[in-house]
Specification:
This protein is an alpha/beta fold. The protein has 6 domains: 145 residues, no CATH class; 103 residues, MutS, DNA mismatch repair protein, Chain A, domain 3, CATH 1.10.1420; 217 residues, Rossmann fold (3-Layer(aba) Sandwich), CATH 3.40.50.300; 65 residues; 72 residues, Roll (SH3 type barrels), CATH 2.30.30; 81 residues, Ribosomal Protein S8, Chain: A, domain 1 (2-Layer Sandwich). 52% of the residues lie in helices and 15% in strands. It contains 22 helices and 23 strands. The strands form 6 sheets. The chain has a 6-stranded mixed β-sheet, with helices on both faces. The protein has a 5-stranded antiparallel β-sheet with strand order 18-17-16-15-19. The longest helix is centred in the last third of the chain and has 86 residues.
């Protein structure tokens, strides 16, 4: 994306607003680097991550970023094996705790809404609770190491405490002995040693070492000889304490060094999450929505609001193009809102393409463009001796050179700044040239010639900003399908210009021009109503489709739950039958024990008959339970690779992938999962004969060799990856696979580019594309084989 458009449309101001919601400087740096993404798949994925973060904020509250700092400097020092300061260690531990809590924060119970993109990001987090606890147990604050950090430190501090108590007792005793010679009855500390304030004239009366004197010289601070050994012992303990603290810090730093890859990855993930949630908080503050994204050049923004204008005064904008027309010409009076409309379209497009949600209504649509060009504002340059017109033309020349069908061009007052006749002709020529190249265009103008051009040219539509003649003020509403009416006569009349002057002015204008203006006025009401009705109908249709998809998904979920409940009920029934049989056997055993104590043979016979009845009844119930499972289909007599069969345990059809092994198990494909099941548990599926007919055509190929439907290239260099992919495509083609997935990861994009370049010319490949959301996004390429 060209930097000029980003600057002119003030995208940097949006980024500054997003920065206000971050917790770390690292996330601010990510926002500084934010710009529109290079392909539609990345745009959709980053919009989805923002949407998921907003949902998490709404449902679970603030994410666990408490106390997180930018720890890049600490990680750099740890990577080099340096010992870290207590504050740096604490911040790393806080980050590790935040990372661990984030995995809990995004987790969800079965059946609850999932957050696929953010969960995928959090998969890279490695909990390091042992390291985290070690740091928190050892360090109390940036200035204090805990006594619990080590037993040696605890013993040193305890000895130091005892020694200080002994010194204070001794000092108090000496103060009483030397009281006549002391300046004050207090002791003090100089150079971490206990000293007495002795009067200078009595220095000979207190034998010891002089450490300091007062500014007047009247007091000497003397360490009595009897305290020297005690002070030395305290000093020695303090040195031991310092050495032990340094050892503890070095040990903790070493633990971080041992896990530096996980620590660095966790930190990078947290900064990325901080960046994502800053986007979500920004979206929440402006009541933004996640727009639909297409790559067909269709824009349909419903009640879009410019994010830099006060929400209390901003007028929502309805604008669309790309379906019935690709060029929109906006006319209207000065200060009527034409330029704001232009900037709103461009800025909302750039925001959406950068993964930011936009301030608009649900079902708004934006398009993916490789380039957005903007010629807006007064670009007069004194340094280059360029007039306004020359500066605009310089920019337009650059646009004409670079614009293509994947571009959106925004022009403000196209052709202005020169002779009106020549300017209008030039503007029409520029628009026509770009239209032929299928460039999407939104342009503002004052020239009536451009209104006529839009009326008579297919693919070009008029629009205008509404003006209220009664109040002589613009309403800032954009009306598509209606060219702007000048309203000069009406405005002049309301301002008090005499009627005869207005009539003379009308006579000097051709009747065709007046009829044209009247036609505009009559079209305005009809066109606006028809346009709004059509768009409301489209929105209702989209809402209906969304509701249909939502309830179909719920129905599928209910059916799956029903199947699981049936299986669970059957298991529970079998368990109860087993327990009942065991209980009955125990009762009968107890009865036999009673028989030995004196029951007659008649009683024994009756008890045995009752026992048989109970056993038969339980056996019959168990048979019926087993039968209910087995009656779901006939057993598989012959295993055919690729055949669709029924698996009662999952209550769904699966595909056989392998022959039975020595345990009598076969591998089957159940949805996206591959599982091993016993052959005796499989049943013939409904419509299996029809399926067999289709599969038998490819059975010869399938029997050649089983080929995985995906290839993982992560960790390979480009040359090795191309060789592996070429070999894999040969095998997949021979095996009869129609669609394969090549996993290359996101990374720097070098491996993805190499694979995509190779696929373009491969003889087995019919078409290829990057993965969509749910398939792996830009980390995978989907190839369709011939």
């Amino acid at each position: 994306m060209n930097e000029r458009a980003l600057r002119v449309l003030e995208f940097n101001k949006i980024k500054e607003m997003v920065k206000g919601y971050t917790s770390t400087e690292a996330a601010k740096d990510l926002i500084d680097d934010l710009k529109p993404y290079d392909n539609i798949y990345e745009v959709k994925e980053h919009l989805q991550e923002t949407k998921e973060a907003l949902n998490l904020l709404t449902k679970k509250g603030a994410p666990p970023f408490e106390g997180v700092y930018d720890i890049r400097e600490g990680i750099k020092r740890a990577e080099k094996g340096f010992s870290l300061m207590p504050g740096q260690l604490l911040r790393i531990a806080t980050m590790l705790r935040c990372a661990r809590k984030f995995k809990e924060y995004v987790g969800h119970k079965e059946g609850e809404e999932s957050y696929k993109v953010i969960e995928d990001i959090c998969e890279g987090i490695v909990p390091l609770k042992t390291l985290e606890d070690s740091i928190f147990n050892a360090i109390v604050s940036e200035e204090e190491i805990s006594d619990r950090a080590s037993s040696a430190l605890y013993n040193i501090r305890r000895a130091l405490k005892d020694k200080n108590a002994s010194v204070r007792d001794k000092v108090n005793s000496l103060m009483r002995s030397y009281a006549p010679y002391l300046q004050e009855s207090i002791y003090t500390i100089r150079g971490e040693r206990y000293v007495l304030p002795v009067k200078a004239e009595h220095k000979g009366s207190v034998p010891g070492l002089v450490h300091d004197q007062s500014s007047s010289g009247a007091t000497l601070f003397i360490e009595p000889m009897s305290l020297v050994n005690l002070n030395n012992e305290i000093k020695e303990l303090m040195l031991k304490e310092k050495a032990e603290i340094e050892r503890i810090l070095q040990e903790l730093s070493g633990k971080i060094y041992d896990s530096i890859i996980a620590v660095r990855n966790n930190a990078s993930t947290i900064w990325e999450l901080d960046f994502i949630f800053a986007k979500a908080k920004f979206a929440s503050s402006l009541n933004c929505i996640c727009p639909n994204v297409n790559n067909e050049g269709i824009i349909d923004i419903v009640e879009g609001r410019h994010p830099l204008i006060d929400p209390k005064v901003v007028v929502p904008l309805n604008i669309y193009l790309g379906r019935g027309f690709t060029s929109l010409i906006i006319t209207g009076p000065n200060t009527g809102g034409k330029t704001v409309s232009l900037k709103t379209v461009g800025l909302l497009q750039i925001m959406a393409m950068s993964g930011l949600m936009i301030p608009a209504r649900e079902n708004s649509t934006v398009s993916f463009f490789k380039e957005i060009f903007a010629d807006i504002g007064d670009e007069q340059s004194i340094e280059q001796s360029l007039s306004t017109f020359s500066s605009h033309m310089t920019n337009i020349v650059d646009i004409i050179k670079k614009a293509d069908e994947n571009s959106l061009a925004l022009f403000d007052e196209l052709g202005a700044g020169t002779d009106p006749t020549e300017g209008a002709a030039l503007a029409v020529s520029i628009l026509e040239n770009l239209k032929k190249r299928k460039v999407k265009i939104v342009a503002t103008t004052h020239y009536s010639e451009l209104k006529g051009y839009a009326l008579k040219t297919e693919g070009v539509e008029n629009a205008s900003v509404e003006f209220d003649v009664e109040t002589l003020k613009p309403t800032y509403r954009l009306l598509i399908g209606v060219p702007g009416k000048s309203n000069a006569f009406e405005i002049s009349k309301r301002l008090g210009l005499p009627e005869y002057i207005i009539e003379d002015a009308k006579k000097s204008i051709s009747s065709e021009s007046l009829k044209f203006e009247d036609l505009i006025q009559s079209l305005q009401e009809k066109s606006i109503k028809a346009s709004e009705d059509a768009r409301k109908s489209e929105m209702l249709k989209l809402e209906a489709i969304n509701l249909k998809d939502k309830y179909e998904e719920k129905l599928y979920s209910l059916e799956e739950t029903r199947g699981k409940l049936i299986i669970d009920a059957q298991k529970e029934g079998k368990r109860l039958i087993k327990e009942t049989k065991e209980e009955a056997d125990n009762i009968l055993k107890n009865i036999r024990d009673l028989e030995r104590m004196g029951y007659s043979s008649d009683v024994r016979q009756k008890l045995e008959e009752e026992r048989k009845k109970l056993t038969n009844k339980l056996d019959k119930l168990e048979e019926e339970t087993d039968k209910s499972e087995k009656d779901k289909g006939e057993k598989i007599e012959e295993v055919k690779l690729g055949e669709e069969v029924y698996l009662p345990k999952l209550n769904k059809n699966v595909i056989i992938l392998s022959k039975p092994d020595n345990k009598g198990e076969v591998q089957v494909q159940a949805g996206i999962m591959k599982i091993s099941v016993k052959l005796e548990d499989l049943r013939v599926a409904n419509k299996s004969k029809e399926v067999n007919k289709k599969i038998n055509k490819r059975e010869a190929k399938l029997n050649i060799r089983m080929v995985d439907p995906s290839l993982d290239l992560r960790g390979m260099d480009a040359e090795e990856a191309i060789y592996s992919t070429d070999k894999y495509l040969d095998e997949a083609y021979m095996a009869g696979l129609k669609v394969v997935t090549i996993i290359h990861g996101k990374g720097t994009g070098i491996l993805r580019k190499a694979i995509n370049d190779m696929l373009k010319s491969h003889s087995h490949v019919k078409s290829h594309r990057l993965g969509e959301y749910g398939e792996g996004g830009s980390g995978v390429t989907i190839a369709e084989l011939k």
